[in-house]
Amino acid sequence: MVDTRNWFSEIPSSRLRQLRASCRYGCEIEIENRRYVNFSSNDYLGLANDASVMRAAKDAIDHYGFGSGGSRLISGDHPLLHQLEGAIAAWKGYEAALVVGSGMLMNIGLLPALVSRHETIFSDKLNHASLVDGVRLSGAKSVRYGHGDMQSLARALARSLDKADGDRRIIVSDGVFSMDGDIAELQSLAALAQQYDALLLVDDAHGVGVCGTKGLGAVNLAGLQGGERLIEVGTFGKAFGSYGAYVLGTTAMIEGLRQRMRTLIYSTALPPAITAATLAALPLIQQGDLIARLHANIDYFRQQMAAGSLMLMPSTTAIQPIVFGSDEAALAAAERLKEAGFFVPAIRPPTVPEGSARLRVTLSAAHERGQIEGLIQALNGLA
Ligand SMILES: *Cc1c(COP(=O)(O)O)cnc(C)c1O
After folding, report:
1. Tell me, what's the pLDDT at 309?
2. Which has the closest alpha carbon to 39: 381, 380, 378?
3. Which entry of 34, 155, 205, 365 is 20 to 30 Å from 197 by CA?
4. Ligand 1: does its nearest atom lie under 6 Å from the Cβ of 102?
5. Count H helices, E strands: the chain?
């Protein structure tokens, strides 16, 4: 008999995820009346608590009220959204940009808008869930290649060419992988896209504001921005300290997406205050000091950790995972760190592959050297 009380009874209690209400104050986080140094945030530059970003949001509320009141195609469009699209396209070196509500909304709207069942999508196995769901929703033929395995991707592309019936191909990859922190081999991906006449879609949510000395992200670091067979996605919820997402491409591509993307057409536009905050964050990223500070923190953390015995994954980004293997070991480590005053989440399967449960440390420009030293001491105490 149908009963809402046991509908989800198959979820094992050891795998239950918990929502934990918390308040963030700079790089501290308060949970159940206790404060911890936060090493779990995607606010890589500390912009979520930046005074000028907060001021821009408040001023926009005073001018425009809070909610946008509708979808962008009805009455929710706002000059600030167009200003943001122009600014982000110019900064990143593309003809045009389109902004929607979030990265999840972007990817579950973008892929179905781009393709139909006549196309084949080739995706890295560790791509973000939003890309996985976007592929499913698109109804396209789907091929997943092993993480970073360019040879297996090349073979799959060659096979699809053998069956050539005029179908189009799209390669889809994260720029920076969210659970490992490694950067995709974008030059190889672009070369394969060229060789097999495929479109390349890169989601650089964790790369923008982090990679490269100017924070332009992994695609720019690889020198590929603005290419005619390239589409780039990024989000404002991470290094920008705000909320929302953008897609970049040629003018014709962006115009087509405006016509087709259901998550643009059938979803309420971002509130003007959020767009204003994002616009205020951009010059602070461009200015460069915050990125230099973030990279100094990353370098320091890696240098100090190299001396210890814990298994740090090879990452040059703000995401610095430490693999423990079993769920229990990762959870116990997270608990010990919490007792020492540091909040670092344990990430378990199915978010990461079985047997690779880990602590996912994320660093920020806002961390003080002493806070990182404290974390390293606590981590060394675990070994
Ligand atoms: C975080 C993330 C998203 C989702 O973005 P939101 O704005 O949080 O919905 C999409 N893609 C990648 C690669 C991400 O890391």
Report:
1. 84
2. 378
3. 205
4. yes
5. 13, 14
